[in-house]
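R.M. (postdoc): so does anyone remember the format we settled on? I'll just put the structure tokens first.
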């Protein structure tokens, strides 16, 4: 079609294509002289030969947090670091520069300041790799939407005042408290069988686990003694705890090199205490004024100094500062040898008296006070990490920052004088202590157990980590900008910066989301970790939480890659006092949790490796945040923030078991295979579970060679890319292709084992649909977390006897969710959707009785008992107004946040007690929606043979301490539709008299790629419903409005597409995504080939090249994929408005094509109509040539993504459209000057048939528009 537009004004310019946003990154550094030098790389020279970069490419080097400043320019000062080719001089742009040494050679970081107008200029320098924002700005922490608001400040203050009024000294409390018992609880018993591994001697001893988060409260009773220490006697830091704070190291370097006063001023995020204030008292008092104090105070001090000279400073804890109004004081004393400062006192109770405080030393570095002598610390000062000695720089300052004792400024010396600089670790930023929760599920000692959330039938303490004897390394400050890479580097290289020297971190726990990297191993961080694992850190494993964007499919939020371990969430309800049960036998555990981000990953892999409990269990809270009561400083928490550390803790047991057997740590691939082969299969769905739920008993049997078998590969992503299988690139297959894979089964034990082999895919047996309508909302009791508002019994006769999996799906119309259609969180009426397992304890055949006949499960709150640890009141079961019975119900799972949810139950008949009940709780209710009608879908699945997959053997004999192989063949049908497919190879060993039988689930994933016919189109989706769990043509509408920046929440699908040279000739993809109903909405994303460092030696991730052997296209493939077009950008938070190009249930997207190769189309279902349980969608993909011309004597015209821009006041534009998709309606808008005029719809868009391509061809349709202003 050709259209003629007559103009009388200039039309404003619109950018032709959206820019890809990636995170910029810092660089690695030159190795010490005693470390072997890595090979040089020719691509580094290629970088130096580049003469000029376009503004677009330059902008891609800039951290997204700096791009606004770069675009606006101006004189605003910006703190940043710039990664450059070593030796690059940026002094003409930057001030206050700190030039770091280059790690591994090639590229280095320059820290400093510049004005905003220089950012783009710096980025255009050919030897500049990345610009990254630094400073005190914090990224958003993960949060738990089910946790009530922070502890009541007034109650916390009252508690603190009471403790101070009746306090015991540290020594008195120690004498009174006696010994507090330590025992395990459910996480480590049946949940993940950690305690079974302990019985074999595997407790994590010798393993270092790094927690990358906001800090660990080592003063907490459950975490005292759990820190890692430097074990090398030749290290100047021998015996000191290990911790790393990137922000603190930056402040130290700034003070030493630039003479700033960041440490003395107490900048945000600092873990330092500047103790250069020196006093020589003649009595037992000193006068001092801490940061934040308005006047000086007289402090009582212990008279224990050997020199008589004391050092004073201000502690960095902001929670304490918020209560006291100022920092608490720190005293440093040389108690054993004059001039050797070895003891620290912190005035935790702020009574200006150090003599009642704990003497803190290298041998006893925890800082805390038990104020009332009950045996539990109540106030914490974190962990003492290091005291300056005048002879050494702080840990890592030498190799990361190049600082030596010769460096000095008026404010700080490179090697500070003895006792004049002290480093702490802890959760010192005010507010929620997420890192402490994570750490407690790794190494919690099972000490605290008080509060109403503790089950009466518990055994010992409530918070017991899976690996009680690991050493935890606190990587605090993670949520500050610019910290990730240094943290990864220190984890990989340890304190000394030398790879494989023995002080490296074996496992890192990463419970944070980074949705800018949601494209999986296509993203920068996943590829960085692959590079580290394949070079300097072969035995360090990064464990990532998959994210909480469920219950829909993909993508994961963590920085996943093929060498990382991605942990999803399994259930465990009843280990804390949720709902009401009377026995541990009623705890429901080991199901796939609804809320977390499922697979598949955007690289086509399953996206998950294992599940660990995140729904839900106990975790410790920081003492100073949670109310100053150590005995109750824990709560119920969840999310994959919990799953990650639980998985990491059990992996630590595997590490110890392996080293016990083989004398060395496992490499990343061995560790990953062992924990996956040891996992318990709970769903036979790779996209839901990876390999299954972590099972430390079986995994340590495998690692130690006690019993069992494991297989490689641990996952088969079927296919390749153009004949080659790359570790860190997508593997795709065409319909009609056949592939084979050789599996090796290892038997490290001394027993011959014969395994049974089979393949399968979870297949629908039967399904049914039910409905339920609520009573009028005015009849409901006030909200109580532990009591449903409505119950409906599930008829057990609906459950087939052979069902391995039951899926319960809930939905209600959008009109009863957000009836005003403002698409703003919170909705007017939303619900928690639950499924309860009922145990008829009293034998009366009833869970509840509707005594008032209103259809509502009413209740009365037990106000007298007060709130539990989670901030909720429990029902008063003794009150006749409470209609549900005590001790009889526990949720199997639940979820909330949207209008559609699902719950997954393994072995539903076998695990049912006396019945299941559907449950609903009103979560948000503004009283504008009187009643709600829910549809309930019940689906039942069992494994069936996967017709595409065949195995060479049905059984395999594996000799002791040997291996055997079998072949798997994947024959993809010629009519297989494009999309993702999942299945499993099952490997069953029989067990013996001492070991249970075990089924290993080996995931198999197929991505059938689409080919775009020349001059034609291809359809993705649009097919009938399959009898499998995953659907390539239907959505379940699983968006949610949790909020909190969960940008990717929704039900995703992805498809791979090959673009050849003929497709490229059309210049653009034309994509039409369509579905059935308003306000259902899909956002369409297109990922295309993008050069980066890992594959190509270019791009913003190039900082780690060439030291880690990059680029390496044999590992990372020919390029990466990054977004090249989208119909709607990501938004902050999870609530998206309805927005389509047509205003109806379909969307058009035109994406410029720049190169041939692998492309990916990803659909993000962000809204759902809710009238039915499922809704069909389809994506039609074609091409479109879009040209605009005008008489050059009149003016010029530019072509945008969906527009043409005329640079003239009057004239004519000839627009030529050559699409390969039929376009039913076409609208046009002409803007300029003072008005905008809309035209259309036109009757049809006619595809050109060839032969005539001018404006006046007889077969073309054209319209004439005129605008006057």
């Amino acid at each position: 079609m050709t259209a003629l537009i007559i103009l009388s004004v200039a039309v404003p310019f619109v950018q032709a294509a959206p820019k890809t946003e990636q995170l910029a990154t810092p660089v690695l550094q030159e190795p010490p002289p005693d470390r072997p030098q890595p090979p040089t790389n020719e691509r580094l020279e290629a970088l130096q030969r580049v003469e000029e970069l376009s503004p677009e490419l330059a902008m891609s080097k800039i951290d997204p947090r700096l791009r606004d400043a770069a675009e606006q320019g101006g004189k605003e000062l910006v703190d940043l670091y710039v990664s450059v080719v070593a030796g690059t001089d940026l002094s003409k742009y930057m001030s206050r520069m700190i030039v770091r040494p280059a790690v591994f050679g090639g590229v280095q970081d320059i820290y400093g300041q510049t004005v905003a107008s220089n950012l783009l200029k710096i980025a255009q320098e050919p030897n500049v790799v990345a610009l990254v924002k630094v400073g005190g700005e914090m990224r958003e922490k993960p949060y738990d939407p089910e946790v009530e608001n922070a502890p009541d400040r007034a109650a916390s203050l009252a508690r603190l005042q009471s403790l101070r009024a009746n306090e015991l000294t540290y020594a008195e409390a120690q004498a009174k408290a006696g010994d507090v018992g330590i025992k395990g609880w459910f996480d480590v018993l049946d949940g993940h069988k950690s305690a079974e591994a302990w019985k074999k001697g595997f407790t994590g001893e010798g393993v270092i686990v790094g927690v990358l988060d906001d800090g660990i409260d080592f003063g907490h009773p459950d975490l005292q003694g759990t820190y890692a220490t430097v074990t090398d006697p030749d290290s100047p830091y021998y015996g000191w705890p290990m911790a790393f704070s990137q922000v603190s190291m930056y402040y130290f370097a700034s003070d030493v090199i630039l003479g700033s006063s960041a440490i003395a001023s107490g900048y945000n995020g600092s873990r330092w205490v500047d103790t250069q204030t020196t006093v020589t008292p003649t009595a037992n008092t000193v006068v001092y004024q801490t940061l934040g104090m308005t006047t000086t105070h007289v402090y009582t001090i212990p008279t224990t100094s050997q020199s008589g000279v004391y050092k004073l400073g201000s502690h960095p804890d902001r929670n304490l500062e918020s209560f006291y109004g100022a920092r608490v004081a720190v005293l440093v004393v040389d108690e054993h040898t004059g001039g050797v400062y070895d003891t620290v006192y912190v005035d935790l109770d702020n009574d200006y008296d150090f003599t009642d405080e704990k003497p803190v030393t290298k041998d006893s570095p925890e800082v805390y006070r038990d104020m009332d002598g009950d045996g539990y610390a109540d106030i914490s000062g974190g962990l003492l990490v290091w005291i300056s000695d005048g002879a050494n720089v702080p840990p890592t300052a030498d190799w990361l920052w190049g600082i030596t004792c010769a460096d000095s400024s008026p404010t700080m010396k490179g090697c500070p004088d003895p006792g004049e600089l002290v480093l702490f670790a802890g959760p010192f930023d005010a507010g929620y202590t997420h890192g402490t929760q994570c750490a407690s599920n790794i190494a919690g000692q099972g000490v605290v157990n008080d509060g109403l959330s503790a089950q009466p039938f518990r055994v010992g303490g409530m918070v017991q980590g899976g690996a009680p004897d690991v050493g935890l390394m606190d990587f605090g400050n993670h949520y500050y900008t610019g910290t990730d890479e240094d943290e990864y580097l220190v984890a990989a290289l340890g304190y000394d910066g030398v790879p494989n020297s023995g002080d490296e971190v074996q496992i890192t726990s990463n419970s944070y989301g980074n949705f800018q990297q949601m494209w999986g191993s296509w993203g920068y961080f996943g590829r960085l970790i692959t590079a580290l694992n394949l070079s300097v850190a072969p035995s360090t494993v990064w464990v990532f939480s998959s994210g909480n964007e469920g219950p829909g499919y993909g993508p994961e939020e963590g920085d996943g890659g093929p060498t990382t371990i991605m942990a999803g969430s399994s259930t465990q309800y009843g280990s804390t006092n949720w709902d009401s049960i009377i026995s541990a036998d009623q705890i429901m555990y080991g199901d796939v949790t609804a809320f977390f981000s499922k697979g598949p990953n955007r690289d086509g892999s399953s996206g998950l490796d294992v599940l660990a409990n995140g729904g839900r269990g106990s975790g410790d809270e920081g003492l100073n945040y949670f109310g100053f009561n150590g005995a109750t400083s824990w709560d119920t928490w969840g999310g994959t923030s919990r799953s990650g550390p639980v998985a990491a803790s059990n992996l630590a047991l595997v590490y110890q078991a392996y080293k016990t057997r083989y004398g060395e740590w496992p490499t990343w691939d061995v560790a990953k295979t062992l924990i996956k082969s040891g996992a318990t299969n709970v769903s036979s769905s790779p996209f839901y579970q990876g390999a299954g739920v972590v099972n430390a008993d079986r995994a340590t049997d495998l690692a130690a060679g006690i019993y069992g078998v494991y297989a490689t590969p641990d996952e088969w992503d079927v296919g390749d890319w153009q004949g080659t299988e790359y570790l860190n690139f997508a593997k795709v297959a065409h319909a009609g292709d056949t592939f084979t894979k050789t599996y090796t089964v290892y038997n490290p034990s001394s027993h011959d084992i014969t395994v049974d082999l089979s393949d399968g895919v979870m297949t629908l047996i039967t399904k049914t649909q039910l409905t339920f309508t609520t009573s009028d909302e005015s009849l409901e009791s006030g909200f109580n977390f532990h009591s449903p508002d409505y119950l409906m019994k599930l008829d057990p006769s609906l459950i087939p006897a052979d069902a391995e999996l039951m899926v319960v799906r809930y939905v209600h119309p959008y009109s009863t969710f957000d009836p005003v259609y403002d698409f703003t969180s919170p909705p007017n009426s939303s619900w928690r959707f639950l499924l309860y397992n009922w145990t008829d304890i009293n034998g009366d055949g009833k869970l509840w009785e509707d005594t008032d006949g209103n259809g509502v499960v009413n209740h009365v709150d037990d106000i007298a008992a007060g709130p539990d640890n989670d901030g909720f009141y429990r029902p008063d079961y003794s009150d006749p107004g409470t209609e549900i019975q005590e001790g009889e119900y526990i949720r199997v799972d639940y979820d909330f946040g949207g209008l559609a949810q699902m719950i997954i139950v393994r072995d539903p008949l076998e695990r049912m007690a006396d019945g299941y009940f559907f449950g609903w709780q009103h979560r948000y209710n503004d009283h504008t929606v009187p009643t709600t009608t829910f549809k309930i879908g019940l689906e039942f699945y069992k494994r069936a043979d996967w017709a595409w997959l065949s195995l060479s053997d049905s059984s395999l004999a594996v000799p002791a301490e040997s291996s055997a192989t079998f072949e798997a063949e994947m024959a993809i049908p010629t009519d297989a539709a494009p999309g993702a497919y999942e299945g499993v190879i099952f490997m069953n060993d029989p067990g013996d008299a001492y070991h249970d039988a075990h089924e290993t689930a080996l995931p198999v994933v197929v991505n059938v790629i689409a080919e775009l016919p020349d001059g034609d189109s291809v359809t993705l989706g649009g097919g009938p419903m399959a009898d499998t769990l995953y659907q390539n043509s239907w959505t379940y509408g699983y968006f949610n409005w949790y909020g909190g920046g969960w940008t990717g929440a929704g039900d995703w699908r992805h498809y791979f597409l090959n673009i050849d040279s003929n497709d490229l000739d059309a210049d653009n993809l034309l994509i039409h995504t369509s579905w059935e109903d308003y306000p259902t909405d899909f956002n369409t994303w297109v990922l295309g080939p993008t050069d980066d460092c890992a594959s190509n030696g270019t791009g913003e991730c190039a900082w780690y090249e060439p030291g880690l052997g990059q680029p390496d296209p044999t590992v990372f493939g020919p390029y990466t994929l990054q977004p090249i077009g989208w119909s709607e950008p990501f938004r902050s938070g999870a609530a998206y408005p309805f927005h389509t190009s047509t205003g109806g249930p379909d969307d058009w997207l035109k994406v410029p094509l720049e190169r041939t190769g692998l492309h990916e189309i990803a659909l993000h279902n962000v809204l759902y109509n809710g009238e039915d349980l499922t809704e069909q969608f389809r994506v039609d993909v074609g091409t479109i040539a879009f040209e605009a011309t005008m008489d050059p004597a009149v003016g010029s015209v530019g072509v945008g993504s969906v527009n043409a821009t005329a640079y003239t006041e009057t004239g004519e534009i000839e627009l030529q459209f050559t699409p390969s998709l039929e376009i039913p309606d076409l609208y046009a808008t002409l803007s300029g000057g003072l008005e905008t005029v809309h035209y259309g719809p036109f009757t049809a868009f006619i595809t050109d048939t060839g032969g005539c391509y001018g404006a006046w061809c007889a077969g073309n349709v054209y319209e004439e528009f005129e605008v006057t202003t």
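R.M.: ...and that's the designed sequence above, right after the tokens. Also worth knowing: The longest helix spans residues 640-662. Residues 1-16+1052-1269 form one domain.
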